[in-house]
Design a protein that fits this description.
homodimer; about 450 residues; Rossmann fold; six-stranded parallel beta sheet; 13 strands; about 40% helix; globular; Sc_DH/Rdtase_CS (chains A, B); KR_dom (chains A, B); oxidoreductase activity, acting on the CH-OH group of donors, NAD or NADP as acceptor (chains A, B); 3-oxoacyl-ACP reductase (chains A, B); SDR_fam (chains A, B)
């Protein structure tokens, strides 16, 4: 699963060669290490409108060194310290001339970014705004934000978060993810934070006391999700097909969890699963998935049906059953593993892309119903992730997948797991019915 | 503005070389020729649900040779004639198991496509559906549709059109565009048709009797838009800056229109324009735009302000003024020239992308208000188009822009103009507040 080009490009010789002949120069990305306490290890700068003050009220829990708009002249003069994190509140930009504030704020800031700096622009969802001028201006912020994300170097990331007027209290949980290495492979994304009953969260073990089910947990991304949920305090229940029992039990032993051997496509899968979870479940991660790639011309009925059955119909039926039976507890969290193929489509994957697009539909369609019990359902859409599966791709295709993104590399299973673990937190009720890409701002899109 | 690689790849020698060493093989795209009568010159196959019957009721106006679902066994047996157009109604797919109908229908069809075949899948907007299972299934159709579009060869295209329950009457106008060479460079797109008062349309001169204003009309895409609107029967009024007067007048003389010399950023631009249009205007195409590319680090205030002023603030102010003054007539059509950069963002174009994203916001924000008078406002987002501007790009960047799309080539200004001309039709009221990409299914996306 290693991308040796990153090692090369970051070696002494490699750096010179890469610079001289214009090769891609992917950065080494920092990841979250178990036991780390602060989301931001370095300087945080806050600017823009009044939401920056809200962030300032909890900034001391994010970092030791926070700066506000009054300090901006230091960076304008080129004298500010290197920045590890930046938050700019653009939500008060209500007409097109005020967009210049984005240029004014970010220009000096960009010059002072530390490596692996994480930035967030706060805005309002244009479609929620009555005033057409404000709608237009906020829509323009997205174009700015996606462009600037593409200009960042050294592992820098930038997201745009829409904050509903009554969702200020939801900011800390979101910024703990988006300003920290937990979101190392997320960039150029747009996500909405809605009002939600705030849950008291122990930020060092945000999943403490929560029971989490992970399907397809024996290997790869599923195993990484299980590890990350366990790291964050969850009691994990690992599910996979009976053939994977050996790997699954070894992982469960290591993580102190238990296992369920189950074919999620079996006719009685739902009743079996409910029976296996007599105490209920707080977190359900539908990670199990298969690929059977063929262009449609060569697609067999079996290839079509099996991919749809495992990837879409099983999560749909199980989610419905877990909810209807009350097995999914109040304030539950359901996370679906979609894919950038489900967003953009992919040659040779009409079955897979249909199933992964359907999962986005599942999150959209079930969100309101789950919200009646304080629960949420969201999709995570990985782009190119370094796994055993991608290691077997032909060289040219694998290299294209790795490099055709703003971060110029594939992600690690942990990157997907961190996004899942964040959405699984009790404090993540602000996000519901949405899809979060973990793709390094892959250029692939719809 | 020519792409000589297409000529090479379609030559005798080129075809053999391209096949042998795996180079891209972009097809020669057919375009609409003035004087052509039928949207489809060849066989049309209709299948799927009940909307196919609706299409059958006017199919004889689309083509001489239409086939229905009863004829499908001919293609399944490999005996059907080559198909130039295909419409499949997927709107009755209401659960995931029914998605297999897509595979069953399209598999034999794909094998029998003529060159430059145009296909449309009809569906329902998932977000309009009450039933979660139907929502999920319809969302899955998008993943299928975008994937299949990426598998087509020989200039084939495929779109997904969401048809609101009471929008059946809007189908003919949309299919006349999407099944004909007018949409040669549009593929993999999703668009919604809403109910709308149907306007009687003379399909041979769909813009007859309509007055159309085109800004930035002296050259390039603007000139092509003016020509295409005139071809379709509109009386054209060409606007550009005073410096472009010579080119503008030559074009107006050729098209039988008149000119307006105006700097759209002037303080009194709106009142000057209203005064210049005493009889009102039916169609307004905001095409004028500039680029001033720099990464944000090097972006000057002037580069920022001028791009925002020309590309976004001027169209916003003029649209508002034309509407408020009643100069935009009832059933008017406003079309804004956005860009795939406004959707996906682009390195070195934070100003341009902000302005072009803002135009998408302008369409969204003004749509409901314009609808109160039967008018619409939409954005067209060109991808890589062969113009004087793109001819000056560095070779590698130009080649990447051309090839990184399903059609493997850049579009022509006419392709953008055809999309504008379609949205400008009286019969296009079904589309409002939306953005239509003309990008050959460029892989760039958000």
């Amino acid at each position: 699963m290693s991308d040796r080009y990153i090692d090369f490009a970051n070696s002494d010789l490699g750096r010179r060669l890469v610079g001289a002949i214009g090769l891609p120069s992917p950065a080494r990305l920092e990841r979250w290490q178990a036991g780390r306490l602060r989301p931001v290890e370095g300087a945080l700068l806050l600017g823009g409108g009044g939401l920056a003050n809200k962030v300032a009220s909890f900034a001391s829990r994010l970092t030791d060194t926070a700066y506000g708009a009054a300090d901006l002249p230091s960076w304008t003069a080129g004298l500010g310290p290197k920045l590890k994190a930046v938050v700019f509140d653009a939500s008060e930009i209500v007409d097109g001339t005020q967009l210049a504030r984005l240029r004014e704020f970010f220009q000096p800031v960009i010059k002072s970014l530390d490596h692996n700096a994480h930035m967030v622009i706060l805005g309002r969802n244009p479609r929620d705004l009555e005033d057409p001028e404000a709608h237009i201006a906020q829509r323009a912020v997205e174009g700015f934000s996606r462009s600037l994300a593409k200009e960042l170097r050294n592992g820098g990331t930038l997201q745009l978060l829409y904050v509903a007027p009554d969702a200020d209290e939801q900011l800390e949980g979101a910024l703990r993810f988006f300003l920290s290495p937990k979101s190392a492979f997320v960039s150029g994304q747009v996500l909405s934070l809605q009002a939600s009953a705030r849950q008291v969260t122990d930020w060092t073990r945000p999943l403490a006391g929560r029971k989490a089910l992970v399907t397809g947990a024996a290997r790869g991304i599923g195993a990484s999700i299980a590890e990350t949920l366990a790291r964050d305090g969850a009691e994990v229940i690992l599910l996979d097909v009976p053939q994977a029992r050996h790997d699954l039990q070894a992982l469960a032993a290591r993580l102190g969890g238990r296992t369920i051997d189950l074919d999620i496509c079996a006719d009685d899968a739902a009743s079996q699963l409910i029976a296996a979870l007599p105490e209920g479940i707080d977190i359900v991660v539908h990670n199990a998935g298969i690929t059977r790639d063929k262009t449609l011309v060569n697609m067999t009925p079996d290839y079509w049906d099996s991919v749809l059955a495992v990837n879409l119909l099983a999560p749909q039926r199980l989610t419905q059953a877990l909810f209807d039976s009350g097995t999914l507890r109040d304030d539950g969290r359901v996370v679906l593993l979609s894919s950038t193929s489900g967003i953009a489509g992919n040659r040779g994957q009409s079955n897979y892309a249909a199933s992964k697009a359907g999962l986005i539909g599942l999150a959209e369609a079930f969100a309101a119903r789950l919200a009646t019990r304080g629960a949420t359902i969201n999709a995570v859409a990985p782009g190119f992730i370094e796994t055993g599966m991608t290691a077997q791709m032909p060289f040219a295709l694998r290299e294209a997948g790795r490099r055709m993104s703003s971060l110029g590399q594939g992600g690690q299973p942990q990157d997907v797991a961190e996004a899942v673990a964040w959405l699984a937190q009790p404090g993540s009720g602000a996000v519901n019915g949405q899809v979060l890409r973990v793709c390094g701002q892959s250029i692939l899109g719809a």
